[in-house]
From TrEMBL:
It comes from Heterocephalus glaber (Naked mole rat). GO terms for molecular function: UDP-glycosyltransferase activity. Belongs to the glycosyltransferase 8 family. It is a single-pass type II membrane protein. It comes from the Eukaryota. The lineage of its organism: Eukaryota, Metazoa, Chordata, Craniata, Vertebrata. It is found in: Membrane. Keywords: Glycoprotein, Glycosyltransferase, Membrane, Signal-anchor, Transferase, Transmembrane, Transmembrane helix. This is Glycosyltransferase 8 domain-containing protein 1. Its main location: membrane. The keyword Glycosyltransferase applies. GO terms for cellular component: Golgi apparatus; membrane.
Length: 371
């Protein structure tokens, strides 16, 4: 009898042990499945913090939130700060800044944002995991700045701003002089996931690019000798657009799987070299040109008055610069660098770094010369 009881006890213990193992494995599988389906696998885009402070201006709680996405790298942090400051001071709208950066920059950025006139802005800092770009970007020393990971943050907008239907993306080398609400209300045609400023129609482009070859059409960005490009039947003379400032319909973006499409062309470029060898602009432009070929709306050209960084000289009249809604220093001559055009306008919005880590290069040179 006692022998039978022992067997029953052993059997019960075995069943309990089996159930515990089964439960553990089930939890592990559930966790794995959750990770696999989370944000289409984009687990590298993680929010670091969110500060829902009251904006400087009184904001009606019923106002629609305007998400503005800006990438902020350590060596260009002053640019992002100036851009944010200019947006904040020229609107009464309910703006939330989604500032995309790398983990090692977050603390520096946070200390800058919590000091002075920016302490009341609403923002979220989002960490960008560079593993997202593995197999999608080919190292090219000739590309320099445009090869930096945060350049590609604009491809992942629905992941960066998961709950928004619409968002604005802009580079860090801009100053906004108009009310960002007007840009946000740019009408997008049905079926269009984004609105850009086209190069051919831009008043600023016509001033600078005239006679400069293929820097304003598709052949300046894509290698039409490659069969895969030719098979797309895109006209080489098609006007290109600038991806440094755009408005995105995130509902449509997700519906069309734009991020997946962009990644597809990034991978194909690594394998086959589809971009032009004399790339006219940022390395982010070619995949965007392919995905949005004849499928994008346009923003008012005055919301992307660009090429201010193409040379150190002033190419526009004071009246034109004053009328511009957004000034864009795309090019090699950045307003925080050794020399640039219209630096007086940019410095109006620049806030010195309270930590002293970031300093204007030209100011540093001036001090050195005095010594």
């Amino acid at each position: 009898m006692s022998f039978r009881k022992v067997n029953i006890v052993i059997l019960v213990l075995a069943v309990v042990l089996f159930l515990l193992v089964l439960h553990h494995n089930f939890l592990g599988l559930s966790s794995l499945l959750r990770n696999e389906v989370s944000d289409s696998g984009f687990l590298g885009l993680q929010p670091i913090d969110f500060v829902p402070n009251t904006p400087r201006h009184a904001v009606d709680g019923k106002q629609e939130e305007i998400p503005v996405v800006i990438a902020a790298s350590e060596d260009r942090l002053g640019g992002a700060i100036a851009a944010i400051n200019s947006i904040q001071h020229n609107t009464r709208s309910n703006v939330i800044f989604y500032i995309v950066t790398l983990n090692n920059t977050a603390d520096h950025l946070r200390s800058w944002l919590t000091s002075g006139s920016l302490k009341n802005i609403r923002y979220k800092i989002v960490n960008f995991d560079t593993k997202l770009l593995e197999g999608k970007v080919k190292e090219d020393p000739d590309q320099g700045e445009s090869m930096k990971p945060l350049t590609f943050a604009r491809f992942y907008l629905p992941i960066l701003v998961p709950n928004a239907k619409k968002a604005i993306y802009m580079d860090d080398d801009v100053i906004v002089q108009g009310d960002i609400l007007a840009l946000y209300h740019t009408p997008l045609k049905p079926g269009h996931a984004a609105a850009f400023s086209e190069d051919c129609d831009s008043a600023s482009t016509k001033v600078i690019i005239r006679g400069a070859g293929n820097q304003y059409n598709y052949i300046g960005y894509l290698d039409y000798k490659k069969e895969r490009i030719r098979k797309l039947s895109m006209k080489a003379s098609t006007c290109s657009f600038n991806p440094g400032v755009f408005v995105a319909n995130l509902t449509e973006w997700k519906r069309q799987n734009v991020t997946n499409q962009l990644e597809k062309w990034m991978k194909l470029n690594v394998e086959e070299g589809l971009y032009s060898r004399t790339l006219a602009g940022s390395i982010t432009t070619p995949p965007l040109l392919i995905v949005f070929y004849q499928q994008h709306s346009t923003i008012d050209p005055m919301w992307n008055v660009r090429h201010l960084g193409s040379s150190a000289g002033k190419r526009y009249s004071p009246q034109f610069i004053k009328a511009a809604k957004l000034l864009h220093w795309n090019g090699h001559f950045k307003p925080w660098g050794r020399t640039a055009s219209y630096i007086d306008i940019w410095e109006k919005w620049y806030i010195p770094d309270p930590t002293g880590k970031f300093s204007l290069i030209r100011r540093h040179m001036e001090i050195s010369n005095i010594k």
